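Translate structure to sequence.
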């Protein structure tokens, strides 16, 4: 059964709550990261959508309006749902909301996904949602990796995908 959830824009007070929620599960997501997101949202560089259940933070997704990798094509980035709230439709709801927002301004959206097992659920989700690889191969820190180069497999190593949202 899907959880009853709400999706809203990031607002003052959220950075501390979000950081604390991730610290509680052992993730390093400092308050400063979310304060930067709030500043970027206020300046129009990024939108941040926050999911709540009973007014309690459970996840978020961001949309960069100008991507370091894709250029003028908006990029969905930094998408997380707290583990106890996964597989309840909240992640799909966040993605639906992000794609709807992007489709108002762009026919195409981009997204990157990590390469190791922790990203397996996201890899499958993006494929089911119609995202396809952009064909440029392995990317590290937003730069294509040339054949023969060695890179560390961490959060900076990914494949980039795109999806057509409207004709």
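Result:
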């Amino acid at each position: 059964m899907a959880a009853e959830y709400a999706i809203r824009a990031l607002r003052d007070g959220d950075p501390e709550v979000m950081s604390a929620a991730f610290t509680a599960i052992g993730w390093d997501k400092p308050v400063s990261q979310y304060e930067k997101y709030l500043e970027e949202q206020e300046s129009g560089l990024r939108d941040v959508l926050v999911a709540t259940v009973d007014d309690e933070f459970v996840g978020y997704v961001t949309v960069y309006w100008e991507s370091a990798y894709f250029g003028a094509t908006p990029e969905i980035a930094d998408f997380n749902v707290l583990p106890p709230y996964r597989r309840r439709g909240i992640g799909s709801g966040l993605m639906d909301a992000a794609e709807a927002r992007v489709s108002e301004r762009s026919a195409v959206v981009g997204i990157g996904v990590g390469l190791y097992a922790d990203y397996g659920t996201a890899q499958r989700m993006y494929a089911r949602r119609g995202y396809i690889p952009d064909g440029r191969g392995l990317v590290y820190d937003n730069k294509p990796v040339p054949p023969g180069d060695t890179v560390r497999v961490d959060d900076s190593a990914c494949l980039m995908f795109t999806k057509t949202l409207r004709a």
